[in-house]
């Protein structure tokens, strides 16, 4: 998983996605905000949701409490 | 479909149909074909990492990467090697040739994607993928396929030319003649009815006959 390291914590690109998702954004908006290709963002969002760092909110993505804690 | 020995063959992708979706481990994490929805994708296979022709091709693909990005085209490679082999090889290319490989490469050790797309040509090799190129459009439709043998490296100019031709066709509803290059005249699709054929010669195109008309784009 490119956005989750083997210890289960977000990688640098994972943290960038989480940081961008603080403001409830779509995958396209996150891609533009952090300058990562959309296909990488979509894959990263999947990883981060599976690990409980993000959740879907309609067509947007919302950071969870676990996600916030990982950025501290 | 079954052959004379009763072995089942998977149905291979065909032009104009939806490209089969997959999820695969790549050098950029786990990716699905659907992750590329909304952009063009060139999915290509190579026989093996750390081989000379493939190395020249990876350098070639990296060299046209920016041009492809300008056309909203992503690239993704594939071979029957591990992700660690891929990582080691792309690092080796950067060290030896100064070229960074910017696109993901599928580690298809179990041949799932290679089998799905018919990338293995048993007459050439049962353990390696041939040099296949699949051009998939933003709607996930397979628009072009090219197959090269193990011994022949691909022509990057042709890959760019196919993208330009397909995008020109989509944008202007025209066809492109042999050896067409951007900026050259395009083919006006032949009229489908007798009435349209009679009209065609009055429409101001550059026509040799009713079925063979060209035009410059923008005219």
Largest sheet of chain B: 5 strands, mixed
Continuous helix count of chain B: 5
Determine Rg of chain B (CA atoms, Å). Answer: 20 Å
The tally of structural domains of chain B comes to 2
Q: What gross morphology of chain B would you assign?
A: elongated
Instruction: Assign the structural class of chain B, choosing from mainly alpha, mainly beta, alpha/beta, alpha+beta, or little secondary structure.
Output: alpha+beta
Question: Strand percentage of chain A, roughly?
Answer: 5-15%
- If helices are DSSP runs of H or I spanning 4 or more residues, what is the number of helices of chain A? 4
CATH superfamily of the largest domain in chain B: Glutaredoxin
Compute the gyration radius of chain A: what is it? 10 Å
Low-confidence stretches of chain A: none
Low-confidence stretches of chain B: none
CATH-assigned fold name of chain A: Arc Repressor Mutant, subunit A
CATH level 3 topology of the largest domain in chain B: Glutaredoxin
Folded structure, characterized:
The complex is a heterodimer of chains A (72) and B (219). With 72 residues, chain A is mainly α. Chain A has a single domain (12-71), classed as Arc Repressor Mutant, subunit A, CATH 1.10.10.10. Chain A is built from four helices and two strands. Chain A has a two-stranded antiparallel sheet with strand order 1-2. In chain A, helix 1 (12-20) crosses helix 3 (38-50) and helix 2 (27-34) crosses helix 3. Chain A is globular, with a radius of gyration of 10 Å. Chain A starts with 11 loop residues before the first helix and ends with a helix. The model of chain A has no long low-confidence stretch (mean pLDDT 93). Chain B has helices spanning 52-70, 83-97, 112-117, 156-172, 194-200, and strands at residues 23-26, 29-32, 40-45, 73-79, 105-107, 131-136, 142-148, 186-188, 206-209, 212-215. In chain B, strand 4 (73-79), helix 2 (83-97) and strand 5 form a beta-alpha-beta unit. Chain B has a five-stranded mixed sheet with strand order 5-4-3-6-7, with helices on one face. With 219 residues, chain B is of the alpha+beta class. The longest helix of chain B has 19 residues, at 52-70. Chain B starts with 22 loop residues before the first strand and ends with a strand. Chain B folds into two domains: 23-154, Glutaredoxin (3-Layer(aba) Sandwich); 173-219, Antioxidant, Horf6, Chain A, domain2 (Antioxidant, Horf6, Chain A, domain 2, 2-Layer Sandwich), CATH 3.30.1020.10. The model of chain B has no long low-confidence stretch (mean pLDDT 94). The chains are: A mainly alpha (72), B alpha+beta (219). The interface between A and B is small, with 12 and 11 residues.
């Amino acid at each position: 998983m490119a956005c989750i390291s083997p210890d289960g914590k977000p990688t640098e690109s994972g943290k960038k996605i989480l940081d961008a998702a603080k403001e409830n954004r779509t995958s396209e908006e996150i891609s533009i905000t952090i300058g990562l290709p959309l296909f990488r963002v979509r894959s990263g969002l999947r990883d981060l949701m599976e690990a409980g760092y993000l959740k879907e909110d309609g067509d947007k993505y919302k950071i969870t409490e676990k996600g916030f804690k990982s950025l501290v | 479909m079954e052959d004379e020995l009763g072995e089942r063959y998977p149905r291979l992708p065909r032009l104009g149909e939806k490209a089969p979706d997959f999820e695969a481990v790549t050098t950029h994490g786990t990716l699905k074909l659907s992750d590329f929805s909304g952009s063009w994708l060139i999915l290509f296979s190579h026989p093996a990492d750390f081989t000379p022709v493939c190395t020249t091709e990876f350098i070639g693909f990296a060299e046209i990467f920016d041009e492809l990005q300008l056309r909203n085209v992503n690239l993704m490679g594939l071979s029957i090697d591990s992700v660690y082999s891929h990582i080691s090889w792309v690092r080796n290319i950067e060290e030896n040739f100064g070229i960074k490989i910017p696109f993901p490469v599928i580690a298809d050790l179990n041949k799932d994607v290679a089998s799905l797309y018919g990338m293995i040509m048993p007459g050439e090799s049962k353990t390696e993928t041939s040099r296949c190129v699949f051009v998939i459009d933003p709607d996930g439709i397979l628009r072009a396929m090219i197959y090269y043998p193990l011994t022949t490296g691909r022509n990057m100019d042709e890959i760019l030319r196919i993208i330009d031709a397909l995008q020109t066709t989509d944008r202007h509803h025209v066809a492109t003649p042999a050896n067409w290059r951007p900026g050259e005249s395009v083919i006006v699709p032949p009229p489908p009815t007798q009435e349209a054929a009679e009209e065609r010669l009055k429409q101001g195109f550059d026509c040799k006959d009713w079925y063979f008309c060209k035009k410059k784009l923008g005219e």
